[in-house]
Structures are given as C-alpha cells and as structure tokens.
Design a protein that fits this description.
38% helix; disordered N terminus; 93 residues; signal; Lipoprotein; three-stranded antiparallel β-sheet; 2 helices
C-alpha cells in the first residue's frame, strides 16, 4: 500500500511540474513582421555561401553570426557582406 501511494505522489508531482513548464513564446503579429523584414534585409546584404537561416545577433559585438557546418564540427562564423565586411548593427550610444 505504501509503495502504491508513493508512486501516485511521485507521478502527480511530475505531471504537475510538467504542466508548469514554460511554453514557447510566440511573437505578436507586428514583431513577427518586423523580424521577417529584418531577416530579408540581412539575407539581401549577406554574401552567397552562408547559412543565413541560422544567422543570429550576438550581443557581445552587436554583429550577426551564422552556423557553418564543416566536416568535423559546426562553428559560428561572422556573417559578411559581399565586400567581406561583417554585418553589424550600430551601437545605440
């Protein structure tokens, strides 16, 4: 009897905790449109041969980086324009 009630308590707590897990946050329509416009602008600036779909803005340098999948590992590389210059946002200061 003790094992059964202990099992029920553990299962209940697991289910309760799973229900409290953070759900995915979806952007509003305005934010999604702005993100789509930004992604299109970045894709237009980027030189060919880069995985623009994986591009992300890193706060350390305010520049975009993309995932390059090589034969051994996947590495973040700076996203560059056709002139070889990194694509970065201007600082707010």
């Amino acid at each position: 009897m003790w094992v059964r009630s202990k099992t029920v308590m553990v299962m209940s707590s697991v289910l309760f905790t799973a229900g409290c897990a953070a759900s995915a946050i979806t952007p509003s329509g305005r934010e999604a449109a702005r993100d789509a416009e930004r992604a299109a602008a970045i894709a237009a600036l980027a030189a060919p041969g880069q995985n623009v779909a994986s591009a992300r803005l890193l706060p350390q340098d305010n520049c975009y980086w993309y995932e390059h999948t090589g034969p051994v590992e996947t590495t973040l590389l700076p996203l560059v324009n056709v002139d070889g210059q990194p694509i970065c946002l201007q600082s707010k200061t």
